[in-house]
Amino acid sequence: MEKTANNKGLTLNLALSYSGKWDLVQATQQIAEKVKKGELDAASIDADTINDYLATAGMPDPDLMIRTGGDHRISNFMLWQSAYAELVFLDVLWPDVDRRTLWNAIEIYAKRDRRFGNAK
């Protein structure tokens, strides 16, 4: 932690016991409570509002999501935040991911043409 305390280039999120569905539900409940109390106008709710109430508020959305274990699904992980993330699926289990495996995933990501939902 001391070695990386001043790093500003990348953000690594490790979400343990996290559920994307839970995150969306709790954000919606908080927003609904604000609307009920008259603190927020329902017509003004937009994507930024939802972002502000997620557990990941203030964190950048992921550019790359690496799924280990050979599964080809996101498994309820960052459902809202991963809308434009590039997905890389690895056949190795998380404990077996080493520097070479991680570098390979980054190389795959670097070759992608990121369009953020825009078709060519």
Quick description:
This protein has helices at residues 20-36, 47-53, 99-110; strands at 64-67, 86-89. The protein is mainly alpha-helical.
Would you kindly provide a written description of the structure presented here, covering whatever features stand out?
This protein has a two-stranded parallel ribbon. The longest helix is centred in the N-terminal third of the chain and has 17 residues, at 20-36. It is mainly α and 120 residues long. The N and C termini lie far apart (42 Å). The chain contains three helices and two strands; from the N terminus they run H-H-E-E-H. The chain is elongated. Helix 1 (20-36) crosses helix 2 (47-53).
Number of helices: 3
What percent of residues adopt helix (DSSP H or I)? 25-40%
Major sheet size, sense and barrel closure = 2 strands, parallel
Distance between the termini: 42 Å
Strand order of the largest sheet: 1-2
Oligomer: single chain
Mean pLDDT, to the nearest integer, reads: 92
Descriptors:
single chain, 120 residues, mainly alpha, 2 strands, elongated
Topology:
Elements: H1 20-36, H2 47-53, E1 64-67, E2 86-89, H3 99-110
Parallel strand pairs: 1-2
